[in-house]
Design brief:
The protein is 45% helix and 17% strand. It has 9 helices and 5 strands, in the order βββαααβαβααααα. The longest helix has 22 residues. It is globular. Its EC number is 2.7.7.7. It catalyses: DNA(n) + a 2'-deoxyribonucleoside 5'-triphosphate = DNA(n+1) + diphosphate.
């Protein structure tokens, strides 16, 4: 059973929006949850082997000088593969982070077995009254812990982990007879918004 409270929550900072266009990861941060508790974290800058433009430097606070002395993708991804071994994965806007994880692992001939879930897609279904579903908005809307730092990988992964645990609590209240699994979350995340309450009712029978 793939319990949703035993996952690795991850976040990438990158040189751009798409590895298909040659963009690379410049930082990875991750939080390991076991039984709904933070038990470990992972954070590394990554030398992308290319110059980072001024927008990305300002957006992330990660400078070319910082990256010049950072370890290679090969070194960091080998460590990260061990960190996530046996765990399923969560990210906010997971399609973005999955693209970069897949690309960086492919570059380095690495593999992972965990499946992904997306806290953004889940939020659109179970927090329909939120002003929007950006991470910063949801942290404020749900009054979740944060240190005021955004667009650094470990800070964003930590905030996403608090959001994820909040979402699991909300689902547990709706489905008190069920253990919340990734299968349940991915089912909810794929439903039209108007069908969520009907799904809860069906599961409660």
């Amino acid at each position: 059973m793939t319990l949703a409270n035993q996952v690795v929550v991850l976040d990438f900072e990158t040189t751009g929006l798409s590895p298909d266009n040659g963009d690379r990861a410049i930082e990875i941060g991750a939080v390991k949850l076991v039984d709904g508790q933070i038990v470990d974290t992972f954070q590394e800058l990554i030398n992308p082997g290319k110059h980072v433009n001024n927008f990305i430097e300002q957006y992330t606070g990660i400078s070319n000088n910082m990256l010049k002395h950072a370890p290679s993708s090969k070194e960091v991804m080998a460590q990260f593969a061990k960190f996530i071994d046996g765990f399923n994965l969560v990210a906010h806007n997971a399609s973005f982070d999955k693209k970069f994880l897949d690309a960086e692992f492919k570059h380095n001939k690495l593999h992972y077995t965990g499946q992904f879930a997306c806290s953004l897609l889940l939020s659109r279904r179970i927090s329909q009254d939120a002003p929007n579903h950006k991470l910063g908005t949801l942290v404020s809307y749900h009054q979740l812990p944060n240190d005021g730092v955004f667009h650094r990988a470990l800070a964003d992964a930590t905030m996403t982990s608090y959001l994820w645990l909040h979402q699991l609590d909300e689902l547990q209240q709706q489905l008190p007879q069920h253990q919340i699994t990734l299968d349940i979350i991915n089912k909810i995340s794929s439903l039209p918004k108007a069908q969520i309450n009907r799904y809860y009712q069906t599961m409660a029978r």
